[in-house]
Design a protein that fits this description.
The protein is built from 19 helices and 14 strands. The protein is of the alpha/beta class. Helix 3 runs antiparallel to helix 4 and helix 6 crosses helix 9. Keywords: 4Fe-4S, Flavoprotein, FMN, Iron, Iron-sulfur, Metal-binding. Pfam families: Complex1_51K (PF01512), Fer4_15 (PF13459), NADH_4Fe-4S (PF10589). This is NADH:ubiquinone oxidoreductase subunit F (NADH-binding)/ferredoxin. Its cofactor is [4Fe-4S] cluster; FMN.
Length: about 475
Amino acid sequence: MTRTVPPVACVGEPRLTAGFAEFGRLDLLAHEEVHGPIGPMEPAALLRLAEAIDLKGKGGAGFPFARKLRAVLESCERQDLSAVVVVNATEGEPASWKDKVLLTRAPHLILDGAALAAFALDAEEIVIGVADDDVGRPSLAEALQERRMPVPTTIVTVPHRFISGEGGALVNGINGLPHIPPGTKKRSSDSGVGGLPTLLSNAETYSQLAVAARIGPYEYAALGTDDEPGTVLLTVTGSAKRPAVVECAAGTPLREILDLCEVPPGPGILMGGYHGKWITAAAADRAEVSRKGLTAVGGTLGAGIIVPLGADTCPLGEAAQVVRYLAGESAGQCGPCKMGLPDLARSVDLAVSGSAPVELVRAAAGDVKGRGACSHPDGTARFALSAMEVFADDLRLHATGEGCGKRVKGTMGLPGAPDANPQKLTLDWSRCDGHGLCAHVVPDFIRLDGNGYPAFPPTPVPTWLREGALKAVKVCPELALRLVRAE
């Protein structure tokens, strides 16, 4: 699968994107000309730097980098083991492109940051995880041929799936296990790649570290806010007429970014990606691009993903598609994911179709929150609940059964082409005797009502449940259940 990296823009002084306009992709010579030399740092010095700039992970969770680094240092000393440095450049979030921009245009910044960490930890190796979409690996491999790294450095390719970017899933993949999160939560700083203490962080995080090591904490803090110094990389897609990866200083008005990308008026904007939260257009007008600024208006920075919706699409239908996708991306190894997320997707479908109250969505979200082996159930529940809140007016229109009158255009950046043959279940009530076999075959989509008769959303059957729906049709003894094309 070949994917095209979007254009790059900058508001204010470029740092991570410096040299892009002049060189396009920065090879080693161009990289050194633009950014200048960099030398190794001792552990204490690197810790002080990370703490001074309050560097937090740019992959979504926002965990302080200095705490990760200290935890690995202490674990190495306690266990008398070597460390491994892992760069998470998998970017499994379909709507995100910022790490791919760094891989394809500034790979040496990523390698600089990883090399700094490896020297400070006296690491055994560096491992860089990339997706199997053929976007970032060629440029990264070329960069490794252009330079000498302080320790052996390898590239590991993982499936381009949403959950492949989860830290535990990446460690599992590097260790030769299935590319899914581990069944139990564990700290990679204690036991990660090869059972060794592992420093794992996002590609942008290492790039920011490389910039800060060159210019120092004071100049680094010349951009951004007091709470969040430096710059931020954002991916702006959705209804934007000029989708782009944008670098800006933390604290930049969100409206400035939206205007730069020519985002038309619409009902809402998703902040932080599929595990993020929706905000209204009014909230966007007063928001600043920072964790603190976006939290103040009910949003989240997350992995720096901004997906605005146009006025010509059904926002609830768009959200429902994403919840179905996230349910299908489950690792399927714990109850909240295997059973809870399909139930949440079904509840959202029912609410959007006007067949059930929003309380059903809240109940389904409550059943998965805080109970998963990873953060996937929590993030999916957060996304679904946020949509129900921000699009409450649309939900009231849908509650009448007539809907908002808008079609779902599919602007959320979901992978793959739209379903060429969407199908839905129908029931011939003159034939149905309430045997209930269909609900046993595909319980994730069909339930039995209070009278023992099948109940299911009038929306298309999700592709991952299509096979089960076909089986349900075949086992119906009265031939009452049909699978027909959804118009």
